[in-house]
Design goal:
165 residues; globular; two-stranded antiparallel ribbon; alpha+beta; 23% helix
């Protein structure tokens, strides 16, 4: 998800993304709970079988904070596993993180907080290998190629078809 958000920032006009995490039942971030409950209340009274009613329902959610709805197309399905092999995500303690901040002007860095009470962010770099004296670390994220020839499960049990995208 980290690489997907960083690549999204490269292809859009978004300058900064802040992700907040909390434990179930211990809500330090009311704004997320408010948006989720608003979405649940709208979806309780409507039936969604195709994306169009879902988009209409999402646009009718009342919220103090504005949020954008982005419709996913084929170009958004990428092979992030292949792209992440050159990066080192083990530098980020994901099980302990409370807040992640991604900034467009620093593509290889992620800022994190381990507690909501922390005043400042700690910066973690995603470089796969530490740079040597003779090498200059690149500041370019690897691109995630489009998924191609992925199996689609059919209605029949254990039968797969391979469409070409």
């Amino acid at each position: 998800m980290t690489l997907a958000l960083k690549l999204f920032m490269n292809t859009s006009d978004v300058e900064e993304i802040v992700q907040k995490f909390c434990y179930p039942g211990h809500s330090e971030i009311q704004e997320v709970d408010n948006v989720h409950s608003g979405i649940e209340n709208v979806l309780k009274v409507c039936e969604v079988y195709i994306p169009v009613p879902l988009i209409r329902a999402m646009k009718s959610v009342r919220s103090k904070a504005d949020f954008n709805i982005i419709q996913i197309t084929k170009k958004h399905y990428n092979d992030y596993l292949k792209a992440t092999q050159s990066l080192k995500f083990s530098n980020i303690p994901f099980t302990k993180v409370k807040c992640l901040r991604y900034e467009k002007h620093r593509p290889m860095d992620v800022d994190l907080k381990l507690s909501f009470s922390d005043v400042s962010y700690r910066t973690v770099t995603l470089y796969g290998r530490p740079p040597t004296r003779n090498s200059v670390p690149t500041a370019v994220l690897p691109l995630a190629p489009l998924l191609r020839n992925q199996p689609v499960v059919s209605l029949e049990k254990n039968t797969r078809s391979y469409p070409y995208v």
